[in-house]
Amino acid sequence: MEVKVVTATRNHAHAMAPHMRKKDAAEVWAAYHHCPKEALVRSLRASTSAWTVLVDGTPVMMFGVGSFNLLDCQGHPWLLATDKIRNLGTRIIRGTRKYLDIMLEMYPELVNYVDARQTSTLRWLRWCGFSIHEAQDFGAEGLPFHKVTLRGRS
User: Fold this and answer.
1) pLDDT digits (tens, 9 = 90+) for 103-127
2) DSSP H/E element including 29
3) Residue 36 in 3-state DSSP?
4) Eight-class DSSP state of 83
5) Most buried of the four, 3, 48, 54, 144, by CB within 10 Å?
6) Per-domain boundaries in the chain
7) 3-151 is classed CATH 3.40.630.30
8) How far is CA 21 from the centre of its chain?
9) How many alpha carbons lie under 13 Å from residue 75 in its C-beta half-sphere?
10) Each residue's pLDDT tens digit, 7-40
11) Beta-strand relationship, 109-115 and 74-81
């Protein structure tokens, strides 16, 4: 199995969208009423930097970071995937730190909201060092989401 991390493209978003994990699709719908393709394309467009994990040439995960405006000192990281990332096991976890460090070089603080139903994602984010705040109603569907934050070393 050949695994590569490359700069994300619209072609990756279009190829990955029909295969997005159900829980990721449910989260982007609950937050923004976006379908998988729209969520991937919008996230990519709003990103300062974005990457795709390719397995044997097939996009299985896209992630990145951007800001909501030019004056925003907060980066807003995102990650959407297909079920095929399960096949990568700890490779994904081990690679996390490098990309978080890159994001924290761009932005002193990373902030986003995660659907409370994403329990494994929240565990992973806690392992990465994110603070997980109490869930509050959020987004288009008004479901519980946790604010997650990570500050860089100042």
Assistant:
1) 999 999 999 999 999 999 999 999 9
2) helix 22-32
3) helix
4) G
5) 54
6) 3-151
7) yes
8) 12
9) 25
10) 999 999 999 999 999 999 999 999 999 999 999 9
11) parallel
